[in-house]
Structures are given as C-alpha cells and as structure tokens.
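Deliverable D4.2, example record:
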Amino acid sequence: MKATVTFNRIGLYSYTPYLYIWGAQWMGSSFLQYLWPLDPHGTIRNVLLGAAVVLSALFLWRGAGKDSPAVSAEASVEISAETTAPASAPASAIGWLLPAAIAAVLLAAALLFIRLELVSPLVAELLRAVVLVVLYIGIGASLGRELVYLGVWLLVLTAVLGVWYLGYVPIVLGFSAGASLLACALIFRFWSKARQGQQASD
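Output generated by the structure prediction step:
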C-alpha cells in the first residue's frame, strides 16, 4: 500500500504546470478586481483567462502520450513494489480519483450556474473554493496530510468570509484560493523530490 501511495504521489507531479498556470490566473484576476480602475471592463482578466487556456492546451499537447520526468525516472523502481500488492492499487487509485471526480462535477455545475446567471459572482467564488476544499481533503486523505491541512485552511477561510465578510470574497478568497493552487503544486513537487532523495540514498 505504501509503495502504491508513493507511486500515485509521483504521478501527481505531472499536474504541477496546470496548478501554476491556473493559480497565477486566479490570483491575477482577483488582484485586478481589487485594482478595478486598471481593468474596468475585465479586458485584462479575459486576456489572463485566454492565456491560461492556451498554456494549458500547450502543456497537454506536449505531454500527450508521455509520462512526466518524475514518473519516468521512478516508474521502474516502483512497479516491482506495486506488483507485490496488486489489490492495493485499485483501492488507492479510487481513494484519490473519487474526490477528483466529485470536484470536477462540482466545478462543472458551478460553471453552468455562472453561465446561466443562476448564482451571483460572490456565491460562484464560494462554490469554486468549496470545490478545491473537496479536492484537497479528498486526495489528501489518501495520499498525504499536507493537502488535508491545505484544505482545512481554505475551508475555514471560506466559512469566515462567507459568513462575516461576503463582500471581500472575490478578492480575498479568490486570491487565497489561487495561492492554494500554487501551494498544492509545491506539495506535489516536494513529494516527488522526497522520493527521488530517498531512492538516491538507497
């Protein structure tokens, strides 16, 4: 089970570029909402969004059919340990894929509500933060407590802002949620580097 968790941790490293891209986009958009005179019509925010989509598509195209460097470097080491416990692999995969699927559904629902103007921008920002909370705590419960701590922090911040400081949600919560994506990317990177260091010492 431990070997499988390590393998899944390394596999998450390939998602770090997207976390950096969308974390920066989210933070930039929230910052521009604070400095609204610089972008009164949302033009710069739309440019940031388009740039994030284009960069994500480029990374997706470059990585199509390829493993991340971390996965390629460690796969041969982990595969033997993984095969010794075949029953643990599906369980571990379900452990973090399930919350990821739930978060994807919640995100799609939030985007649909926004597009149909069924919710206000304030509520939409809260929904996006809740999606991240589900993702962090769900994946962290299976692969590492660092993500659980990140999810709990974001949950507390979301609750405080949602109850007492709703007007600050687009700026403070949006910026903090974007920063949490960058922190998540650093956690994935730390997991990968820790495994490489462990392998080098063996």
